[in-house]
């Protein structure tokens, strides 16, 4: 007998889903809607594996709806467009990121910041407007409202483009919003994983002097020689941190583990900005004094709006900003999740959906 | 042999000082420098009592060196000017605020942001560049470099104007810097004391809708009827609090006790700004989730530079903004400090130095 997921829409779809909080992914038959008049249907070729996928499949935030098909760093090729679609045609290379819809009428949507719409809809694991659950890019196809589809320029390899759709925009957006995109600034990047390595690359492309701040001394060689960071600080080394006090215009903090803020605030020049893009699950200790004495700011940021995501992709293509990826087969995804939990990847897994996701039926 | 406070400088001075962490103030003889070519000497008429004075005399922040003559909301009359002083003349009504010196060379000083100079000299409890310590405005006169002296607008009363020199600039500066001046926007003011009540007045002068956020229900009547706030949110009322979630564009947080940032962040709209100007003596807890999900920010601000302090005073002169004060004599200062510790003042004590400080 067919499951609800298989019959709630009319387009048969296949992917891998987590069934429960163990987070183990396995083949999953479901369905997607037919292409509406403003929809773009695409065959998925690649999908990046974001730490958020891992958190969602293990129900870290106690809000996951199972079965859950993760994946919101999706790249593919258009197979069908609705009658009112203007920007895309069959055969175009496109991407889909963290959102597949928003209210489209609030101030934030009007300002092209759909990511701050109070009613935005996530690409995976969210309730869609018709009551069904959204399923993400660990699947063979997607059907997405045109506004939430990104054009991938020629010159960007499709597999490497995938992580830009979440990791890329997550660091690009705050670098711009908080004014940290001017040439000649000193930018710190805390944490060297998927987000961190993208922050290093974008900050360098903006003309900044970049320092990586990390707890792992063994990341230094890669940070400097491969990613091109100008310097590297071990955050637990008091002397190193002391030597860099008051030197940074901005810091992008990608770390989601609990960690001390005071040393990072100390690295900022006066009027400096610490931007949080990781989400520790407990509050962090904040010395208000340390913000007051230097008129410093701590801000947050969440992915980006669609207009700026397109801008970011175009910028990445023009300036050759590409994520460092490890391409895997769909069968490897559970092992990849275990490795991701231990931060054992340089620096993003990307699933070769097009060549390895095959329905068994 | 090290010189004593009475002999280290040539001019005899008299004030009230705290000599230990009890914070009790008593008469104190000390000395001040002679006017240099860039200095202004002023006879002190009034001095505001800032909560920082209380924190310092009790060594709450751990860096007090006794004896301490507090006071950095100083107003008075110029009695002498050095040869290089052109902006002031004898008889001028002037003020002195939180700092009396800075390096004048760093990027912050060059941009008129002396409050962020890495080598500031505070008006009291601070080592001066010659190694002697600074003494503040609970005293008969002070000698200050002209750069750190403010001209007082003619129409502003000196007593009610004194608190502007710290409380005033402390809320004015971040309101300007963080763009909290767009008419029609919604400002929350957390805490209703010396800083909070002035923030309401500035907020209204900027054309903002102002809501006071407080845990004291008995402050509501005054907040609305006397200070002109548009509404009052009792932070301990869960139902009222829930209604207010996501309604404020900015919040000035003046609370110096340990308190919940999570609640204040929840009151902000998306892209909202929370600026803290209170100085709790312990760290607070910062939830990162609301910052990320709503692109909100939390920031600090520290009084202000001298140029913007003058701007702020001129703004107050134009809009007739002064503090609401309770005038006291110098020998009432210890009682005033006890009452300040319980927030029992509407909303700033000001010492009538000119009429009550005399060597006995």
Automatic annotation (TrEMBL), chain A:
Keywords: Metal-binding, NAD, Oxidoreductase, Zinc. The keyword Zinc applies. Its cofactor is Zn(2+). It comes from Lupinus albus. The keyword Transmembrane does not apply. It catalyses: D-mannitol + NAD(+) = D-mannose + NADH + H(+). Its EC number is 1.1.1.255. GO terms for molecular function: mannitol dehydrogenase activity; zinc ion binding. This is mannitol dehydrogenase. PROSITE patterns: ADH_ZINC. Residues 23-351 form the Enoyl reductase (ER) domain. Belongs to the zinc-containing alcohol dehydrogenase family. GO terms for biological process: lignin biosynthetic process. It comes from the Eukaryota. Oxidizes mannitol to mannose. Provides the initial step by which translocated mannitol is committed to central metabolism and, by regulating mannitol pool size, is important in regulating salt tolerance at the cellular level.
UniProtKB/TrEMBL annotation, chain B:
SMART domains: PKS_ER (SM00829). Pfam families: ADH_N, ADH_zinc_N. Keywords: Metal-binding, Oxidoreductase, Zinc. The keyword Metal-binding applies. InterPro entries: ADH-like_C, ADH-like_N, ADH_Zn_CS, CAD-like, ER, GroES-like_sf, NAD(P)-bd_dom_sf. GO terms for molecular function: oxidoreductase activity, acting on the CH-OH group of donors, NAD or NADP as acceptor; zinc ion binding. This is Putative mannitol dehydrogenase 1.
